[in-house]
Write a structure and sequence with these properties.
Blueprint: H1 15-28, H2 31-37, E1 39-42, H3 52-57, E2 63-65, H4 70-83, E3 91-94, H5 107-112, H6 117-133, E4 137-138, H7 162-177, E5 190-194, H8 213-220, H9 222-229, E6 234-237, E7 241-242, E8 245-246, H10 251-261, E9 267-269, H11 274-280, H12 287-297, E10 302-303, H13 307-317, H14 323-339, H15 352-357, H16 360-373, E11 375-379, E12 392-396, H17 403-407, H18 422-429, E13 434-438, H19 466-481, E14 485-491, H20 512-520, E15 526-531, H21 539-544, E16 547-550, H22 558-566, E17 629-636, E18 640-642, E19 647-655, E20 661-671, E21 682-691, E22 696-703, H23 705-708, E23 710-712, E24 717-719, E25 723-730, E26 737-744
Parallel strand pairs: 1-2, 1-10, 2-3, 3-4, 5-6, 6-9, 12-13, 12-14, 14-15, 15-16, 18-26
Antiparallel strand pairs: 7-8, 11-16, 17-19, 19-22, 20-21, 20-25, 23-24, 25-26
Helix pairs in contact: 1-14, 2-13, 2-14, 6-7, 6-16, 7-9, 11-12, 12-13, 16-22, 18-22
Bound molecules: alpha-D-glucopyranose.
């Protein structure tokens, strides 16, 4: 594995200079102040605990979160710098997951671009705006691999695959941090939630995760390791019990893996209240015990449970912990503040944000990212792209004019949605057409989200009555009946995915499918646009609707990007970062699984369920274009290669259609036998390319120890086997163009 790049070490100051300044700071700090640096204070009304300003004034806080107020940032920073005993500046932190004011596609959508430039450029803009607002640190990227779409937080990650996830992780870290932490347009990134949160039982958020070491090492941890190699400055420990030891008190994770094996030198913050939660989880005896477990496990900063500030003096006084151990936890926090130049530049220019968010290139970047993230799932008879001379278009559905659904999950506190909705985007695209709209019946969670009270304008309104729902249904059908072309915009609301948003079914919520069927029965040409934060089991639509565009939660420019693609001003080229199950009950479902003794091609194949095949509705890596591609001339540089050496794979890709388009060339391997059984397919290379009609390009990939090695249960370590390998190259995980090679001892 690559040598870890020291976290956040990319700054003008040498390591020696940083250490010297940190030593000088520690030398003049009291124990109470050192513990203060380990305390992250909640800056919002809902956050319990003592007043932020009082804690800051006595040097009892190293960071503040859940505050989004530039003026207030400077006020609190002034208290820290000018009134606290050692004048150590604060780190202001917030969840800027896919944009601060200019909102980008959700991370799952960014991963669907299969283009690392998309997350890198998006998070660069997000960092510039967040920093201009006075923030120093974002709680992103979220790197949880997830193979169970019932888990609501799948929206925040990069899907089911560690190889794609690792590429997206590094790209997001580069976007947030740049290559110099002193850069005043960058923020500290935070690899979260370390680790295994996406494996919570049956996709139920916060439930325990039982993960074997081979699954951890080969699937869950690689994106986190990629973030360390990219120099990520901070980590966040997860909420859930990992194999019965909560991640926030887990020495194996936080000390052995993260520091001893990976050489990480930044710091770890807990998830919200997670240190205090160790008592609730039935792990720690009391808050004092919780604090001790977190500190001993190497968890530097307590996010707003205040267990560290309450108990550490007593823990040291009773020698449960030494002051030296506390200093070791404080050191990386001070080092990052020094590297960021916060001691020299603690305040933010309060006039900067308005200039930054007015930059036209920010919204252009959001529209570009949204175009590249969308996945064309179906286009029967080339219905798409639609013609712009259409006379009457009906835009139908509860999400068609929803700014919240268009911007999606994880909006920063105080953000007021301002997206271009699909309806607005289509109206802007067709100034001469009559574009009508009907929402149809509303959709809502059966059990409201507790985030509703925090999101502007989302306070739960009373549910529609049956009469209101029927009237809305009828109005939508009539609106469709009067049009030449119908565009249905269906999916999930922003609060139906994300945190505390797991669900047992993956069907379209509410009466959406019923409405889709009624509109389809009119015999008009119907295009379905999906706005959603997770895979949906749109099985009826897949069989009956001629064109389906997966638009995810596309951000501030989402409606324009949808219109660009529907009317041919942009060509769809995205691919699924996670397979779409036919039913929620088929989850967890993933392509990189073992053959078993009854594989699909075996005459004794057991179809796994007698009530329906669990094959994906749409497989991992799948996505169509407005053109077609052919793969040919697959070659490997050698039929045999020694353990530890590399070989090159090349393939020719030709645009066989009439328009330019993007293809994502994907390389999958299968080790046919070995110390351990290996998955029937594993993604080990991808490249998104643009080809003009008739153009052919040769794409090459390297396969070496990093791609061919794995963590072995049998051997209890990283190994590379001499063995025979299949390889396939193509446009999705069902690729058929095949070659073989041998790795010899
Ligand atoms: C939340 C989330 C985490 C977020 C943190 C701070 O509960 O689990 O992803 O960064 O609290 O808002």
């Amino acid at each position: 594995m690559n040598k870890a790049k020291k976290s956040g070490t990319t700054s003008a100051l040498s390591e020696a200079e940083v250490n010297k300044r940190v030593d000088a700071l520690l030398a003049r700090m009291s124990l109470e102040e050192k513990v203060g640096q380990l305390n992250q204070v909640g800056g919002a009304e809902f956050a319990p605990g003592p007043k932020a300003e009082d804690q800051i004034r006595k040097g009892g806080a190293g960071s503040v979160l859940w505050l989004n107020d530039t003026k207030k940032f400077n006020e609190l920073q002034k208290v820290a710098v000018e009134e606290s005993p050692s004048g150590i500046p604060l780190l202001f932190a917030l969840d800027v997951i896919h944009g601060y004011r200019t909102i980008f596609p959700v991370p799952l959508a960014m991963a669907a671009s299969w283009d690392p430039n998309v997350p890198e450029k998006s998070q660069t803009v997000a960092a510039r705006e967040a920093r201009a607002a006075g923030l120093h640190w974002t709680f992103g990227p979220m790197l949880d691999i997830c193979r169970d779409a019932r888990w609501g937080r799948i929206v925040e990650g990069a899907g089911e695959d560690p190889f794609l996830g690792a590429a997206m992780a590094a790209a997001q870290v580069r976007g947030f941090q740049g290559d110099d932490l002193a850069d005043s347009e960058r923020v500290l990134a935070c690899a979260k939630h370390f680790a295994g949160y996406g494996y919570s039982d049956a996709g139920r958020d916060y439930d325990p995760a039982y993960i074997s070491e081979t699954q951890l090492r080969n699937t869950v941890l690689p994106p986190f390791k990629a973030a360390v190699d990219a120099g990520v400055a901070t980590f966040m420990s997860a909420y859930m019990d990992l194999n019965d030891v909560p991640a926030s008190g887990n020495r194996w994770l936080l000390r052995q893996v993260l520091r001893e094996e990976w050489g990480f030198e930044g710091f770890v913050v807990s998830d919200a209240f997670a240190v205090g939660n160790l008592v609730i989880q039935g792990h720690a005896k009391d808050r004092r015990d919780a604090a001790l477990r977190g500190l001993k496990a190497g968890l530097n900063m307590d996010m707003s449970s205040y267990t560290y500030t309450e108990n550490t003096a007593d823990l040291v006084a009773k020698s449960d912990l030494s002051e030296a151990e506390i200093e070791a936890l404080v050191r990386p926090i001070l080092a990052l503040k020094v590297r960021m130049g916060l001691f020299e530049r603690p305040y933010v220019d309060e006039g900067l944000l308005d200039q930054v968010i007015a930059r036209p290139d920010h919204r252009e970047a959001s529209r570009w990212a949204a175009q590249r993230s969308m996945v064309l799932l179906k286009n029967e008879g080339g219905l798409l792209p639609l013609k712009k001379d259409v006379k009457k278009v009906a835009v139908i559905g509860p999400l068609a004019d929803s700014m919240q659904a268009t911007e999606g999950s994880w909006m920063v506190f105080g953000h007021t949605p301002a997206a271009v909705t699909v309806l607005a985007g289509i109206r802007a695209k067709l100034p001469n057409a009559e574009v009508t709209y009907a929402s149809g019946p509303e959709i809502r969670r059966d059990i409201p989200s507790w985030f509703e009270s925090m999101m502007a304008g989302q306070a739960s309104k009373p549910a529609q009555t049956q009469e209101e729902s029927d009237a809305a249904f009828q109005a939508a059908v009539e609106t469709a009946r009067a049009a030449d072309q119908v565009i249905m915009v269906l999916g999930e609301t922003d609060l139906m995915a994300g945190e505390a948003a797991s669900r047992a079914s993956l069907d379209l919520p509410g009466r959406q499918e019923e409405l889709l069927k009624a509109v389809a029965a009119l015999g008009k040409p119907v295009v379905l646009v999906l706005l959603n934060g997770r895979p949906l089991s749109v099985t009826w639509a897949a069989e009956n609707i001629p064109a389906i565009l997966e638009a995810w939660e596309p951000g501030s420019e989402g409606g324009n990007a949808v219109a660009d693609i529907l009317f041919g001003d942009a060509i769809p080229g995205g691919k699924l970062p996670v397979g779409f199950p036919r039913k929620g009950s088929h989850a967890p479902l993933y392509y990189a699984r073992n053959l078993t003794h009854s594989p699909e091609e075996s005459p004794m194949y057991n179809p796994r369920y007698w009530d329906g095949l669990p094959t994906p509705l749409y497989p991992f890596g799948y996505g169509l274009s407005y053109t077609t591609f052919a793969f040919s001339d697959l070659k490997v540089s050698a039929a045999q290669v020694k353990v530890g050496s590399s070989l090159t794979v090349s393939v020719d890709v030709t645009n066989t259609g009439a328009v330019a388009g993007d293809e994502v060339v994907q390389l999958y391997i299968h080790q046919k036998w070995g110390t351990d059984t290996r998955p029937m397919r594993e993604l080990k290379g991808f490249e998104r390319i643009t080809l003009q009609p008739g153009e052919c390009k040769t794409v090459t990939f390297e396969l070496g120890p990093d791609e061919l090695g794995y963590w072995s249960t049998n051997a209890g370590k990283w190994i590379q086997d001499p063995a025979s390998f299949d390889l396939w190259v193509g446009s999705d995980s069902l690729a058929t163009l095949h070659a073989e090679f041998e790795v010899i001892g």
